[in-house]
Amino acid sequence: MLQFRLIPVTPFQQNCSLLWCDSSQRAAVVDPGGDVDKIQAAIDETGVIVEKILLTHGHLDHVGATAEMARRFDVPIEGPQREDAFWIQGLPMQAQMFNFPAVEIFEPQRWLEQGDKVTVGEIELEVRHCPGHTPGHVVFYSAQDGLLWAGDVLFQGSIGRTDFPKGDHATLIESIHRELFSLPDETRFIPGHGPMSTIGAERRSNPFVADRYG
Ligand SMILES: [Zn+2]
User: Distance from the CA of 23 to the center of ligand 1, in angstroms?
Assistant: First the structure.
């Protein structure tokens, strides 16, 4: 069974998560944006074995600690989709822009595409490509657990920003309708920032994408 724990990191309180399979105790760190010690503390407390890092997109607050964690645990990096390579290459510039400590560039061992599967222990997650906030943004979905890692695509009552390079509002709205709103209403999702919500709640009341506005 899938277990997870949210670990808000960086001044942006990004929802890094520790996701694990409780039969194998194998874990992935999703979006390690920073605050390595906080992430390490959660790993120590749960006693899980980190086997990979999963990334939704290349923004600093989601990936800032990736190189350091990959080295510390000697594990591969999976995601995002290749179109976000320019964000990862631009990490030093992002750090300067947001007044973060210097961060290292890295190269994922595996770029992800629509329909790919990623595994964590015995758990399998489906990859859905959701461009708009960034061009290579992916989300991770477990049909069995009715759970989605939505990154900065959809939030409780809001949607991702699209005013960054290669961001596009219409593309984001399309991604949400095609890849997220096609999931069951009861699907719970972990957004990149803020509280969890469900797909159904956002379809009913999200002022940017609710059904009545579509
Ligand atoms: Zn972002």
Answer: 32
